[in-house]
Amino acid sequence: MSSMLSSLGRQGKTTGSLVRSKASPVNPRLILLAVLIVAVAVIFSFLIPHFVSPNSLANLLRQTSVLAIVAFGATFVIVAGEIDLSVGSVVSLVAVLTAMMSRDNNPIPMMLASAATTGLAIGAANAFLIVKLRVPSFLATLGTLSIVKGLAMTVSLQPVPVRSVDFVKFFRISFAGIPMPFILVLILLGLAVLLLNYSRFGVHTRAVGCNEKGARLAGLNTTRHRYIVLMLGSLFAAIGGVVLAGRTNYGMAQSAGGLELDAISAAILGGSRLGGGIGSVAGTMLGAILLTMIFVGIANMGLPGPYQDIAKGALIGVAILLMRKRG
Amino acid sequence: MASDAEGLLLKVERISKAFGGVQALTDVNLELDRASVHAIVGHNGAGKSTLMNVVSGTVQPDAGRLLLNGKEVILREPRQAQQHGISMVHQELSVLGDLNITENIFLGREPITRAGLVDRTKADRAARELLDRLHLNLPERAICSRLSVGERQMVEIARAVSWDAKVVILDEPTAALSDTEQNALFELIARLKASGIGILYISHRLDEILLLADTVSVFRDGKNAGEVNRGNFDHSTLVEMMLGHSVEKVSSPAASKADKALQVNELSSRGAGLEGITFSVSTGEIVGLAGMLGSGRSELFECIFGMLPFERGSITLKGLPLRIRTPMEAMNKRIGLVPEDRKVQGIFPGTALWKNVTLASLHDLFSNHGFIKEREARAATAAQIAKLQIRAHSVDQDISFLSGGNQQKGILARWILRDPEVLLLDDPTAGIDIGAKTEIYELIRNLASQGVAILLSSSEFDELIGLCHRILVMRDGKIINEVDGSTANEHSLVLLATGGGHE
In this structure, how many other beta carbons lie within 10 angstroms of the beta carbon of residue B149? Predict the structure, then answer.
């Protein structure tokens, strides 16, 4: 499957250049995803008035931001051959903590530092379970998902409003119609692309995910690397938690339940291979946009809640099948 | 041996190594000259791989030393060996499929730009130069999962050489290669040699060794069993040195050649690499398959058992045509398979012995409307334990705690329960100690005398000679000869199976 992917990639040399150099030219999957996004937008624009308008597009970007940031982290984790189910809980916990801290008038750098520490600590705990105690990452992070969710709820069951005016204002800024949360997404996208595609760290992440034993035989410190990747994934989730608090003005313990699955879906749609070795941050970005568009569109169609879930699940399924066939 | 001091590159001095209680190497010596190929031959378990692991820094010796260019080196891990210029190309390739050739070659030592990113241009250029130097016509940015096995091996060799290698160790490098790929590999080896690199070459294919080796060392039971230089060996001297002593022979009682149980006609399978396989096994007959690893013997078993498809040919059982597409169908026709790799394909580690033994019969013999008849299954296992003298505390013991021989008896019991007409035994005594081997031979003879048709493969040909009525010699997916079990000798079998008997 993967070899088919890369063989297609080789022929796609002539098609623009989004991210990669001629070595691994633009994945045709990226183009297909973009086409899919346009197609879904066109369909929704017939069903929903004003679906495609500057306002609702800005809203779409705002809504995508947290998912995209978390999914960037998930991409690294998946490429390294692991999976992290705890990221949704991390987002919730960090959002609640950030809001709580703003209430006590802590300076913003302190809020950010504690968010980052929380993310890194949970990532390190996951890595300890997975790498040191050899618990499969699915099970280990299933456990931390529950623990971290519980922690968030002990901190506060009620939504906690963000009291720092500067903090809230910052997330209200927009440049050329692009809202601040999405500007952050673009910055993180750039960093993540550099990290995954152009740095040693990225090559080693793919190596570890492709064949850990082989990577170890080649002299890589795979233990340390897996630690770092899992902590990085959790750090991205913490950043997502901060952005969520800033975007919604609230920290809620239940706000990001299920986000881990959306993040994994975005990464898979974007071409990451469950099991490791292959993945694209740019693909994940498009995957996150497509998913959010589906969520927003379905919600706007005025279907009752349960139907929203069914339609959402079906659409994600169709999108993944489509991508698989072409890929 | 007669090597001038100038040329001596690597000296292995009185190396010993034990794993647990098993002495893998005893006082082993070896000398490798610059610009030469030193071949290492010996049976499985002769200590070849352990020695290579010592030289490549994967295994620490208990005693003895390694001298590189006259200076002692201590190698605690593969990376240290690589830094000294000793690289090993593993039998199971460690090329990473999702990375391109450049990334594989420089993994862990990627050149870095001032910005801290991987300097792809520089890495690609260096990879290109290296590939050109080795005359490898592969694009440096090709993703390795798209390369053939042979090409990946070339990449692995390029990676080994990229460490400014002085010593390159090749472990069974041709095991998975096609003929053309083999020739390309031999050319590459010649070029490495010409550039002054010393090559340690492990192979059991004597024809290759005759072609490549400047010196051959023979190992037996973890000890040096002789060393010869080019000009002083030919196929038959090597075979003699490998065999050493002969094993006492017991022959099996004659089989009635009356009715053919299993008949295979002109079976060919491109996927399995088999071509025009024709043979038969009568009831009560033990037919041996003599073939080296990669000769196609396991694939043949899998074709008969419905695990691999074949395009042409037919199989009949007691004269009736068989159409088997899945192992379940084979089982229902009372065919049993004891697979090649006991630990991976045979036993279910962590699972009770009784479940391992009754596994193939849980759906019919021990099924009560879909529920397992546990009491019957345990009783049947207990009966088999007594009958086959399986040494286990109870039917509940975890099979992975039994010795190899007892595990294998458990797998045999799995099929004996089903009262098979045909039993396919793929190297059933591999990695089993001599005592248990003898018991398993006895078991096989008993089964045959009860009328079971047995097809048996082994990479240790002396055991086929004692056991089989007829022996088919396999090589490159074909049956190239048939020998009578009572008149066969190991020497000629090894000659045939390793390609020495070419007409």
Answer: 14
